[in-house]
Each structure stands twice: as structure tokens, then as C-alpha cells.
Amino acid sequence: MMSPPPSGIEVIELSKRYGARQVLKRVSFSAPAGSITGLLGPNGSGKSTTMRAMTSLSAPSSGSVLFDGARYDELANPGAIVGTLLDASAHHSGRTAYETVRQAGLMIGSTKQRVHEVVDAMGLATAASRRFGALSLGMRQRVGLAIAFLSTPRYLILDEPMNGLDVESIGWVRNELIRFAHGDGGAVVISSHLLQELQAYVDRVAIISRGELVLEQKMGELKGDAGCEVVVVEADCAALERLLNTHGVESRPLGTPGGYWVKLPSRRLALRLLDARIAPVSLAEGRTHSLEEVYLRMTRGEYELAERR
Ligand SMILES: Nc1ncnc2c1ncn2[C@@H]1O[C@H](COP(=O)(O)OP(=O)(O)OP(=O)(O)O)[C@@H](O)[C@H]1O
């Protein structure tokens, strides 16, 4: 009999209480197979608590989490099937980086060869013999990520995996997540405060505020009314300024008369500008290069020069 296609992760009405304090209130969201779900929220909103409850590291007060229909403790080898990075510092400080990954590998039945592969892939080869306690935050994160990718997981639950990583490592993680979810059909839940980084590739977002889910949406739907930057030329300045003031919109005059750079909170507002013929809007949306693009372009040139020497 054919098994049903994987559905991914379902978080169902998860609640968590610490004494009298309720830190999660009936949080529900889905992280479907083949997609990346960003779990977002301010400091202390409950993201880590949710992720810990998802992986049975702390028992929820009520609610459940299903991985393709099964609870975590019903999975055959949950440590191997669910790759996690929850607290990068939670390892024995006296073990070397290599031993730390190897130890995790022993628990889930990974081969020595696989341990070497992930240690190399995470750029840990030179740090492999250093004590975990002596590693920088970024290096600890790499150890944690190496462990998350050790087995061939079907689900990844990563709490702030980019924390402390340099730009190249962030790029590596991003590519791995895209390959894992979009290529291999895995389900990813990732929390991060780096929203610009996340918005480039997450498929869905679940936003938690004060322990409650306040939004669950596909990125495509969010983009439907996401803000945009536009360049306005030959504007009827008075009419434009009235509109901008009404909506509290950020704008900057350009060098040319009647020219403005305008940051609109929604595309709908841009269309209203056009419809109302308040100002001819050049819909060449202003696209700024991210710091990361500039950084990589600048430093890549430096590497190339160094190689040619
Ligand atoms: N073991 C605990 N005992 C009591 N309260 C806790 C415990 N762990 C977390 N909390 C509380 O639960 C709330 C949610 O914390 P949590 O770590 O899940 O937030 P977060 O969204 O991950 O925050 P951050 O973005 O800062 O990592 C916080 O108010 C925190 O103080």
C-alpha cells in the first residue's frame, strides 16, 4: 500500500505555563513539507518555548505537535528524523568540536564518515580539535548546525541559526535550507530576528506575540500588500505632500524638480497614487543593494586578487 504524501509539521493549540505564568496560549500553525516557515516574534514572545515543546525538550501544558501525523515520541528515531538547533551553547565545554558532533552522531547512529562530512561542510575542520568551551559564538552555532544536519532529517527546527554567523556561513545555511525544503521536500521551522534575510526565502510566516499566534500566512500573500519604494517624477508637490502626510509616508526629495523617493507602506497605496493621477509615478521600484550584496561583491574581488597573486 502506498503511504500518504508527507504533510509536514502541525502545531496544535500548544500552551505552556511556568507556575502562574502562561507563556504560550493555544499556539497553532503548520509547517508543510517542502517549505520553510519563519517563526517570528519579539524577544520573549515564546518562539524558543514553542520550539522546545515541539521537540519534547519541555513538555507543553496542553496541545500537541504532529510530524506527518505522529507525535515526536512516536517517531522511530526522532533525533535522526528531526534535526534541531535550539541552544548552540548547550554542549559539554570540555569536549572538542569534533567530539561534540561525534557524540551526537553516536546517539542517532551516524557513521564516522558522515561526522567528517558535516564537520567539513560547516567549515569546522580547523576548529575540530578545539574545546567547545573555547569556541566563538559563531563556531558554536556551526557545531550546532553540523549536528542538525548530521542525519538525513525530514524536519528541521532551528532557533536563531544565523545568530553569530558570518555572511558566508549565513549564505551556506540559506542554501542548505532551500535545498532541504524546496529540493528534497523537507519541512523547516526557523526563528530569526533577521527579517530581511528571512524574507528572501521563507515560504510562510507564523508570528507570535506575547505567547499568542497573531499571524500565519504564506509569503506570497504577504507580498500582495507589502510596502514598496517608488520614484515619483514631476509630482504635483502640494497634492503629493498632502497624501504623504495623511498616510505618514517616508519620502525624500530628489535632485530634480517635483522628484521624490517615496517609501509606501503598501502597493495598494502606490496604485492609488496612479489611479488618482496625483502624481505620475515611475513604477521603476527603487531597489537598493543590500549590505550583504555589496559586502560580498567587495570582498570577492579581494579574494580573487589574492588568488591571482
Ligand atoms: N524555564 C523558564 N521558566 C520560567 N519562564 C520561562 C522559562 N523559559 C522561558 N520563560 C519565559 O517564557 C517567555 C518566552 O520565552 P522564549 O525564550 O520562548 O521567548 P523567545 O520568543 O524565544 O525570545 P527571544 O527572541 O529573546 O529568544 C519569556 O517571558 C521567558 O522569560
Descriptive tags:
309 residues, alpha/beta, six-stranded mixed sheet, four-stranded antiparallel sheet, 25% strand, globular, binds adenosine-5'-triphosphate
Describe the structure.
With 309 residues, this protein is of the alpha/beta class. Helix content is 36%, strand content 25%. The chain has 11 helices and 13 strands. The strands form 3 sheets. Strands 5-6-7-3-8-9 form a 6-stranded mixed beta sheet. It has a 4-stranded antiparallel beta sheet with strand order 11-12-10-13, with helices on one face. β6 (155-159), α6 and β7 (187-191) form a beta-alpha-beta unit. α3 (97-108) runs parallel beside α5. The model is unreliable at 280-299 and 301-309 (pLDDT under 50). The chain binds adenosine-5'-triphosphate. Residues 18, 23, 41, 43-49 line the site of adenosine-5'-triphosphate.
